[in-house]
Amino acid sequence: MSTNRVIVFDTTLRDGEQSPGVRLSMDQKLEIGRALQDLGVDVVEAGFPISSPGDFEAVQMLGRELREVQVCGLTRAREKDIDVAGEALKGAANPRIHTGLGVSENHLQHKLRMTREQALEVGTKAVRHAKNYTDNIEYFMEDSGRADRDYVYKVVEEVIKAGATTINVPDTTGYTYSEEYRALIKGIIDNVPNSDKAIFSCHCHNDLGMATANTLAGVLGGARQVEVTVNGIGERAGNTSLEEVVMSLKIREDLFGLQTGIQTSKLLAISRLVSRLTGMVVQRNKAVVGANAYAHSSGIHQDGVLKERSTYEIIDPSMVGAEKSEIILTARSGRHGLKHRLAELGFHFTEERFEDIYQRFLAVADTKSEVGDEDLQGLVSA
Ligand code: KIV
Ligand code: ZN
What we know:
44% of the residues lie in helices and 13% in strands. By secondary structure, the chain is of the alpha/beta class. The protein has two domains: 272 residues, TIM Barrel (Alpha-Beta Barrel), CATH 3.20.20.70; 87 residues, no CATH class. The strands form two sheets. It has an eight-stranded parallel barrel with strand order 1-2-3-4-5-6-7-8, surrounded by eight helices. Strands 9-10 form a two-stranded parallel sheet. The chain is elongated and about 80 Å long. The site of 3-methyl-2-oxobutanoic acid has 8 residues, from strand 5 and strand 6.
């Protein structure tokens, strides 16, 4: 099933909320859920209903409140988990059950303590059971990134036969390199006889900082769903960042030829909302939504951007809802940047007077990380 629409599956409220130290109240989950729906995501994974009464309530509440997105509940491949998720999703307009279990030798031996055959049987049984509640069933093969390919192909074939419509191929431990992950997705699509009956989904963790790159590689391999979180929050080093994947697909449409339903002008607002409610600070240099993402400090860059923004910016800040590019005056700034800021403040000087201010500006800039407007006022009035 290869189309040019990429489904955005947001797991900020499930995998994202698993970030150490994060706990969201019901009201906060609702606020984030509504913002995600407004943003244009296709699926909101709202929680893991059997894990706690709070998660059950969150899935139930979001299923009732969010009528324009699919609301998903996570389960292990166990009947009881699936029954509880089915119950939580009863009032949802578009419910999805996300079930599955591990496929790597590591998980089979150390965590599940099952043979491959036993795990396959448990997995397919879980899918058949989930069909009592919905036809919208996603199957995750935990730790696919480290699993034996032939076994993965076998699992995919059987769970599709059992009724799964989306197959999640998680790189649970963030182990793979992009070319491997792309080959994994492509290998599944090319080798599994009924692969045309399902959508394949990328779920990449960021342990080696590869999550966004791997997700995009998976899309190039034929996946048409991406599992992401706002600001990339999640277990350990986090999940794939929603804003990075969406903006990559948009900015490099020439390469991907694919679209999402995301209204990108809302990206900065939702990033700030999630950061505020989770207490997880966004690093200043974070791609797309970091405070420095559209700020220029060196003279060479400022000169370029002031002549033509695209010299150093591939994203127009307004595309993500940021006001404009910023020129930060520092010891690395040049005359062009300083003149520009002074003009914005209403100051125009002869060349000689400007040169004098510039020399004094450099002396001040050497003493601090950023020269602000108050410093400039002092310089021009001296
Ligand atoms: O990382 C992972 O494998 C997961 C699954 C539960 C989907 O989060
Ligand atoms: Zn995960």
